[in-house]
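2024-03-11 09:14:02 INFO worker-7 job=invfold-0412 stage=load source=structure_tokens
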């Protein structure tokens, strides 16, 4: 029974985290939005910076003495909310009469992974399970649904290296906008310019990932923004690791100890089914209780001679980390990776996996490739192709040197 319960707890986390919710808000009643760490009371003087654009949601009625408003902004009032002038009567706990300033919301950036959280379609927080995301995928990917919580106001900087940031849908103020037409209409309204600023453009497509082998997140062009938000803002650095040559997963800002597996796939590969298989058959085993796994399709740029950009290739990346310490760091993840490689060696054909490569970095080993698997026909084809290419180039060079080819 315990094993069945564990699997049932793991499965929701194994499903693709397609719903990502924005965390900060600019609500009037949120204490962290004020420089005094409290909501203004009746005898206070309220200051909004004159040149700061802001949208502020008001949940309840408030009495005030004086308020300085921005030149460009809005109050979004819930039913029954509003402002009334203070009549000078005694208000318990409010006799200081301070100046209370609204905090600057300009620095909240779209590509800051710390400002997003995975949620269920209903908006509930996903349990912190055994599936995690590399840093680029913690920010909404191009086929994700974005949620701004109902009855909240917000302001987000969408500066981007991409001209357009594609999304499946955007929900705000309790309304889901899931078609290009609905989103375009919202952008023409008064609130959108107050909520979104920066050089990027959000576009709602209304479509999810069409490929059963998965879709790359699409945030690689803004990977530097994501890592700067995680590490650069306060001078933080990647944590020091026990393993002597850490792995560097694609889309992740810092190295990790543990194991990575890269899979080449055929048209028969189904990412969701394979993820579920790993969770149910392997990750749920008690001996792997301290292991976390990330799995997704990624793109890697291909270059000629390591310099000239040529194309990009897609593969499935599996990242395994564990809670081991000292010399044991990464060793349990390594064991799970070996089990996955064994499963692929036995069932790769039926799973739609054509080849796989595992790399390991633990507290007791250097980073090394410790295993690989490839179907013989693919390996033979690659060798034959390489030999043919070398013979062809050799023939060209021979004719050129003989003066028979210009």
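2024-03-11 09:14:09 INFO worker-7 stage=emit residues=406
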């Amino acid at each position: 029974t315990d094993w069945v319960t564990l699997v049932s707890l793991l499965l929701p986390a194994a499903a693709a985290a397609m719903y990502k919710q924005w965390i900060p808000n600019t609500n009037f009643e949120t204490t962290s939005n004020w420089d005094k760490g409290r909501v203004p009371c009746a005898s206070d003087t309220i200051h909004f910076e004159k040149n700061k654009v802001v949208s502020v949601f008001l949940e309840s009625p408030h009495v005030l003495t004086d308020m300085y408003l921005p030149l460009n902004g809005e109050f979004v009032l819930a039913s029954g909310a509003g402002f009334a002038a203070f009549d000078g009567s005694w208000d318990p706990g409010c006799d200081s009469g301070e100046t209370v300033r609204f905090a600057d919301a300009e620095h909240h950036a779209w590509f800051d992974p710390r400002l997003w959280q995975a949620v269920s379609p209903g908006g509930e927080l996903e349990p912190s399970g055994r599936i995690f995301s590399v840093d680029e995928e913690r920010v909404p990917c191009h086929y994700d649904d974005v949620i701004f919580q109902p009855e909240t106001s917000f302001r987000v900087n969408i500066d981007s290296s991409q001209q357009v940031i594609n999304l499946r849908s955007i929900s705000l103020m309790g309304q889901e906008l899931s078609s290009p037409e609905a989103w375009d209409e919202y952008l023409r309204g008064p609130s959108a310019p107050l909520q979104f600023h920066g050089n990027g453009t959000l576009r709602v497509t209304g479509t999810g990932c069409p490929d059963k082998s998965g879709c790359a997140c699409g945030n690689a062009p803004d990977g530097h923004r994501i890592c700067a938000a995680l590490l650069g803002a306060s001078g933080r650095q990647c944590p020091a690791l026990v393993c002597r040559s850490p792995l560097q997963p694609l889309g992740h800002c810092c190295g990790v100890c543990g194991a990575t597996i890269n899979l080449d796939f055929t048209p028969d590969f189904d990412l969701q089914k394979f993820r579920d298989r790993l969770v149910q058959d392997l990750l749920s085993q008690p001996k792997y209780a301290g292991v976390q796994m990330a799995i997704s399709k990624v793109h890697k740029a291909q270059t000629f001679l390591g310099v000239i950009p040529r194309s990009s290739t897609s593969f499935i990346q599996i990242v395994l980390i564990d809670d081991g310490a000292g010399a044991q760091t990464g060793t349990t993840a390594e064991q799970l990776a070996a089990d996955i490689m064994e499963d692929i060696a036995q069932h790769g054909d039926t799973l739609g996996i054509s080849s796989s490569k595992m790399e390991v970095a633990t507290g007791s080993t250097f980073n090394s490739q410790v295993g690989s698997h490839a179907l013989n026909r693919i390996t033979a084809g690659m060798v034959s192709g390489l030999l043919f290419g070398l013979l062809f180039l050799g023939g060209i060079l021979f004719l050129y040197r003989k003066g028979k080819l210009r």
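2024-03-11 09:14:09 INFO worker-7 stage=report msg="The chain has two domains: 14-237, 240-360."
2024-03-11 09:14:10 INFO worker-7 job finished
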